[in-house]
Amino acid sequence: MTLRLLISMLPLLFSMFSFAQTVTLDSLKLYSNPDLLINGTRWYDYGLGYTGHQYLDKNKFTSANIQLKRHLFKDIMINYDIHQDKLVVSRKKANTYIYYYINKEDVNAFSFNDFSTQNTRNFINIKTLLPDYPPKLYEVLYDGKIKLLQFHYKSILKETTEFSIGKYNKNSKIYLLIDQQLIRVRNRSSILKLFVKQKKTIKSYLRQNNLFPSKRDLPAFISLIKFCDEKGLTITQ
């Protein structure tokens, strides 16, 4: 599958695909196919003893749509462990829930509704777009010919106290996906270094709109990349 074709499918990724097998949480197919959803290792709570949690936003499962090996699973209860960059899925067995990691290599993409912002958040496995890259899950902030992606992660800071042996520290990195290259960007300066021939155009746009793109101001970053994309700007090789 070409990069252009897959990107064109992203907006529809979590609607009904003509080629996708739709499986609901209560369907036996969900758990009877060992090559698909329940194919990872058993989850255990390795975060005990640490302050905070290892998940993206909340230590709480949420309903999501997941595409695995060109199969679409809808309304699956998951949580995103960003310390290990893996999805955890819950399976109800009798009156008990069992938790598994999904094999990251099999995940093409997933999405869920963020009720705090009323927005849908979409994530993509970079290996799906760039086969030579190792599998890593990135949030898609802007999806055009130029893509703006965010990699979320948590590290553990060793900090022994009376109540814990350390704490989780949340962070992220911002990337552009352009010309089949994944390039880390941090702020206005890093963008200007990429689009050398269009510096004046970009500076003028930022000044007129009072924008200061950074991790702390993602809307400004998204607005800038959307502008560069719609203007057809190209990076300097």
Oligomer state equals single chain
Structural class by sheet pairing and helices: alpha+beta
Largest sheet: 12 strands, mixed
Residue-averaged pLDDT: 82
Measured on Cα atoms, how large is the radius of gyration?
Answer: 20 Å
Strand content: 35-45%
Low-confidence stretches: 1-35
The counted number of beta strands is 12
Q: Which sequence of SSEs, written as H and E, runs from N to C?
A: HEHEEEEEEEHEEEEHHH
As for the number of domains, it is 2
Report, as a whole number of angstroms, the end-to-end distance: 26 Å
Proportion of residues in helical segments? 10-25%
Number of helices: 6
Backbone shape: globular
Please characterize this protein's 3D structure.
The protein is an alpha+beta fold. The protein has two domains: 3-185, no CATH class; 187-237, no CATH class. Helices cover 20% and strands 37% of the residues. The chain has helices at 3-9, 28-32, 126-129, 188-194, 199-209, 218-230, and strands at residues 22-23, 50-51, 62-68, 71-81, 86-93, 96-101, 107-114, 119-125, 137-143, 147-158, 166-178, 181-185. Strands 1, 2, 3, 4, 5, 6, 7, 8, 9, 10, 11 and 12 form a twelve-stranded mixed sheet that branches. The longest helix is centred in the last third of the chain and has 13 residues, at 218-230. The protein is globular and about 60 Å long. The two termini are 26 Å apart. Residues 1-35 have low confidence and may be disordered.
